[in-house]
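Before a colleague's protein record goes any further, I have to sign it off. Thanks in advance; the entry in question is below:
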Amino acid sequence: MSKGFYDLTSSMLTQNRHLAVIGNNITNAATPGFKTDEFIASTFQDEMFSRYGNINHEDGQELGTTLSMATAGVQTVTDFSQGIFEQTGMSMDFALTGNGFFQLQGEEGVVYTRNGSFIIDDEGYLSLPHGGRVLGEDNQPIYLGTDDIQALPDGTILTGDGNVVLARLGIVDFEDYATLQKSGDEGLFITTGAQPVPTDTKIEWQTLEKSNVDMVKEMTDMMSSQRALQSAAQVLKMYDQLLGKATTEIGRV
């Protein structure tokens, strides 16, 4: 019976984590450039075989700090596929037409995003709300001082009359997206070690890339996960009742 408690508890923990990922995806469905997360779970046995290695033991990995059998091996994978474009007509909106990221000067260093819904902050700098100031190709914050601008496909920003170059967006990319991890819940990423490289990805001005969240899939996954959580909770309650009878009734005999 103890194994049943472990299995059911593991299932409930896993489904709670799955629902948290789904909830974050749904919350950011309207966030420009947001990339959806996919929750992947495996059994404890599968995780042990995968990490320890059943042939070459030299490539084994540490299982983690927990020794609880109730914790299944889980991970969250980000889908970096491009979202659809939406023309907004707003002069501060930019979308990347291929691989790459905008660079922002965040509070704790440089962060990366696909969200091109920029504004002009109080000091005249091109900024992403709650993200930071946008960096140019010289890795310095872009000062515009006005929203009367034009933008070229290569990221060059000009004055509204097209006569003066103000800056050029510093667009970068990474060889391995596995080195990126989300920072916060608004489509921001930080790197875990890899260095960004400049890219010639073109931009669409007065356009935004929408999130790639599939609401139909998220709602379906949410209902499935909720049912699994409820079922595990109900069976766990039955286990508790059986254990109670075993200690109060069978114990008397």
About this structure: Residues 215-248 form the longest helix (34 residues).
